[in-house]
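Weekly puzzle thread! Below is a chain. First person to post its structure in token form gets bragging rights.
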Amino acid sequence: MKEVDYIWMDGEFVDWEDANIHVLSHVIHYGTGVFEGIRAYENEGRPAVFRLDEHMERFINSAEIINMELDYSKEELIEVIEDLISRNGLTSCYIRPVAYRGYESMGVNPLENPVKVSIAVWPWGEYLGEGALEKGVEVQTSSWSRHHPNIFPTKAKASGNYLNSVMAKMEAVENGYVESIMLNPQGYVAEGTGENLFLVRDDELFTVHTAEVLEGITRDSVIKIAEDLGYEVNLTPITRDQIYISDEAFFTGTAAEVTPIRKVDRRKISDKKGPITDEIQKRYMKAVSGELEEYQRWLHPVE
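Winning reply:
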């Protein structure tokens, strides 16, 4: 990961190497934090953040869900993001806001611990590996299940939730795959470790409801794009063997963007990026780059 000059921490711009927290911060021991993943893309020589308002709304909502009150409004945090991108001289980047319980007292109860907020930005390329957007990736079905919504709050992008993803990701990498597909406690497909999943079969798209998964903003964008292209998008339970017989499959996510899936559990989905995946991916990349007028509303220019 490439370092930049500044990170914002609770009202101050600090040098990258000085952006530290106390080792007894509550978040380190108990996972009491929330975060967002956002991308800014170069638009005619300047950065524009993709669906910034929606991402920051989800950030605020995540904090509320885990009972953390932020000292900053959505508008104030958006201003910080604009300033931070400009100070670091970036025309495209990944953006990571994080709010967390800091150091005050030890123990499971976090209510006496202060809520801290930081934002970092840095250049980031293809999340699932160089060439993944064109060649696609090989993935496995994880032995780790996605958590039940009464175990962890599935609508919060919360730090503690992601140990579940970490276990599935490590398992995939150690088994020679790039990513895992996780099933829910009932045995149906949930999502990847940090992505939503789409299937294509008979020229229709299929993806799961958001009842038990994070409400993906890229997922929502892709549904709109697919419908604009004339494809029917079905929100339905999906079984792992339905993936095996799909015509195409792909992940969506801020980091993953639209990444084709080439194989699942060593079963070939396709030799290369499928035609519908390709069409959606290209339109998505044009949308985030400001090339399509109908999606300009999704872009937040940074002056």
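Puzzle host: Confirmed. Bonus trivia for everyone else. The first helix runs from residue 26 to 30.
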